[in-house]
Fold this protein.
Amino acid sequence: MDKLLQFQQKVGAISKDSTNPYFKSKYFDINKLIEEVKPILNELELVLLQPLENINGKPALRTIIYDVNEGGCSVIIDFTTPLPENPDPQKMGSIITYYRRYSIQSLLFLQAEDDDGNSAAQAPKTIVKQEPRLAQKNLIASLLKKKMPEIKTPEDYKEACMRLTGYEILSANYDNIINSLK
C-alpha cells in the first residue's frame, strides 16, 4: 500500500485531451491515461495488467496491480468487472476500452481536470429552451439516411435502425442509436 500512496503523491490531475463531439464534452482517452500513469508505475516497480476473462461464459475485465520487487511480486489490487455483452466486435472493443479507462481511473483514485465544470462555473447562466429529443430524432434520421440513402418511409427507418444498431427507435434508445451510427 505504501507504493500506492507514493503513486498518488506523484500523479497530478490528468488533463482531458479528447472531445466527444456528440456531447460536446472533453475526456482523456485510454492512451493518454496510460501515458500519464505508466512512467510513475514503472518508477515505483508496479505493474498494471488488464486481461479479458469470462465469468460464467460472459465477458469480464480483470484489473491487477502487482508490486514487483527483488523478492518476487505480490498482488496489491485484483478486481474483475463483468462487461455488457455485444455481438458486434467494434462495439465490444469500445465497451472494453471504456471499462479499462474507468477501472484504472477508479482503482488508482485518479482525478481529471474538470474543464467542463470550471467553464460552467465561470460562464454566465442562461436558460435555453430546447427540444433535445427532437434534435436527437432528426440526427438519427440523418445518420440513417447517410448509411442507407434508399430509405423512404417511416417503416424503412425503423427496419434500418434495427438492422444497423439492434435498437428500436424509442426515445430511451436515442443515445445508444446515435453512438452506434457514428
